[in-house]
Design brief:
Helix content: over 70%
Distance between the termini: 28 Å
Low-confidence stretches: none
Shape: flat
Largest sheet: none
Radius of gyration: 14 Å
Order of helices and strands: HH
């Protein structure tokens, strides 16, 4: 009921950042492809960090 009061976990923060980066890269890809590629790469690095957290948690 009060989920908005619960602090976000590191994984949730990274997933949110990944989603934001992909959205921003999509919007910029129409204007500047090189910058969009850099954002896609950054989003991929965040995805790697998420995978590391998942493997450490197991």
């Amino acid at each position: 009921m009060f989920g908005f009061l619960k602090p976000k976990s590191t994984k949730d923060k990274l997933e949110s950042k990944h989603k934001q980066l992909l959205q921003k890269a999509f919007e910029i890809s129409k204007i500047n492809r090189a910058q969009a590629d850099a954002l896609y790469h950054e989003a991929e690095m965040v995805l790697v960090q998420i995978a590391k957290l998942e493997t450490q948690g197991k």
